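Office hours follow-up: a student asked to see two folded examples consecutively, so here they are.
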Amino acid sequence: MTDTPDHRPPEMQARPSRLRRAWESDFIYSFTRSPVAMVSAFVVVVLVLGAVFAPLIAPYDPFNPASLNLMNGFTPPGTANQFTGDVFVMGSDDQGRDVFSTILYGMRISLFVGFAAVLLAMTIGVTLGLIAAYVGGWVETIIMRIADVQLTFPAILVAMLIFGIAQGITPPEYRDQVAIWVLILAIGLSDWVQFARVVRGATLVEKNREYVQAARLVGRSGNAIMLRHILPNVLNPVLVIATISLALAIIAEATLSFLGVGAPPTKPSLGTLIRIGQEFMFSGEWWILIFPSATLLALALSINLLGDWLRDALNPKLRA
């Protein structure tokens, strides 16, 4: 049986659905042809879902004192505790907490801080980059000189400085309550520069295009031109930077928490768990350190590899 040709006019022929057009796009084709991207995306999705649904997946609530039993402390992975008979897949820590459960709950803090910090950095950087390039003059000079000065300092030191100042002006009784938000502010303010520089460079190119000139001729305001015309055309590199910055923000949070200036002990993140685990590394309880460290490594590496693929997929020159 042969298919009969469709002689109807093009406007009357059946058009593929939006879902089918999306599935047949170059973006999806590139993703399905990249094993590294597919594996990285799978790892990220599994870890993120594990963190989001931690209360449903975790066999124990590691931060509920009523559920803890000190007799379960230092139980090796997959081994029944000699006193209680309880078995923990990834072992237990010095307080008898299930390491697997603490990792799931710790990832919630790390991911929340990472996403929120990147969103803050992206908002500040994109806004200042657009304004600097479109307005120009002394406004651009001030913004970019501030960015240059901040680039002379390591981002982790800038984050530590901002965190210390914010904690210093916060009353002691509220420090643990606002520590997570202060951490987000510190990482976000230390990471906006790269967004601003990339958006400024892209905006300098886009603002001289014909569609921007046409928008000016019809009387569109500067804000409308920046938000509705220029911004959508400079988002591709921003998405790539945001993906890579997410991994860096998670690592920065873990570093700050490892140094004791990040997440409070009442809301430990992966960095806090690693700091606790390294105290027992050389006494034989290796699992308290290894499993949180491996989780952080897998999460950061997968996001980085996904960002590298996204950079290639969104750049026609690299794809060619």
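And the second, which I mentioned at the end of office hours:
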Amino acid sequence: MSFRMDITGALKGLAEAELKMKAAVGLYANTAGKKLEGYAKQNAPWTDHTAQARQSIQGGHEWQGNKCNIFVAGNKEYSPFLEFCNEGKYAILYPTVRNYSAEIILGMQNLLGK
């Protein structure tokens, strides 16, 4: 007695589900990154002289293999000085991440159903 089963349809369904989940994670991650960007731009503690530092703040996401990274970054050559000098008086990027990380993780858990 032999038993045969064609699992081609099941495998195709799993591949489609994986693509849909990756798209949903990417959309959520990009939205979260843009939220970080907006908060950082609005709440930067320095007084603008040229507004270039504030305008250079960028948030989003990027994929590295199957790993999705959410980021917020300052893109001026002096951005590290704003973050790390003067006892952090002008820091906004790390405080933004610290402020929103729990909310973002909870949202991702809800998205993934965990």
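Two things to take away from it. The chain has a mean pLDDT of 91. The CA atoms of residues 14 and 93 lie 38 Å apart.
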